[in-house]
Amino acid sequence: MNAVLIGAGGHAQVVFEAMVASGLDPLHIVVRADKGLWFMGMPIQTPECLPDMSGLACHAAIGNNAVRKAMIGQVMAAGGSLHTVVHPRAIVSPSARIGAGSLVAAGSIVSAMASVGEGVIVNHGAVVDHDCVVSDATHIAPGVVLGGAVRIGRQVLVGSNATVLPGLVIGDDVVVGAGSVVTKDIASGQVWIGTGLAAQE
Predict the structure, then answer these.
(1) Distance (Å, rounded) from C-alpha 48 to C-alpha 106?
(2) Which position among 59, 83, 130, 139 bears the catalytic label?
(3) Of 83, 100, 135, at which residue does a domain stop?
(4) 107 neighbors 125 (Cβ within 8 angstroms)
(5) Is 11 known to be catalytic?
(6) Of 48, 113, 114, 151, which alpha carbon lies 20 to 30 A from 99's?
(7) For 133-148, what is each residue's pLDDT tens digit?
(8) In this structure, how many other beta carbons lie within 10 angstroms of the beta carbon of residue 31?
């Protein structure tokens, strides 16, 4: 099966290798013109084909949440569909739900009754425990642990090796710093660093 990989950065490399490990044959479209002519040993195709992607299964392999969400919108508007990538060394419960266009990277765990939205990144070694809800266009970075029944809003970045204690609710557009321990709910638009909210200017 062919799937279109959209992106040319470090995250796209991760997705490319996950696709290959899953038995897919990625076709590549670059979204920036300054990346050269080759990507992971493959010739780059330019994005001129984006106006008509009818029948193509696409994955927006872009680390930035807002840019990834916008690209997903362009793909859908151009008639494409979203392809979900689950690395064969990830563990996904049969009762979990993984949304269209998401990545579940190698070494990650999505546990019983968890729900992962559209265009989400569950990066290497992250744990999404039972009954968690991770909303669209969010990035759960490498080594993150979400305790049971955590609810994460849209376009959230949970930084590497952060821990969110069970049952907490994180709003939309939140940033949780790397290595943080989240001990209480976080309202939308807030930044959490270490063990508390960052000072707001």
Answers:
(1) 32
(2) 130
(3) 83
(4) yes
(5) no
(6) 48
(7) 999 999 999 999 999 9
(8) 19
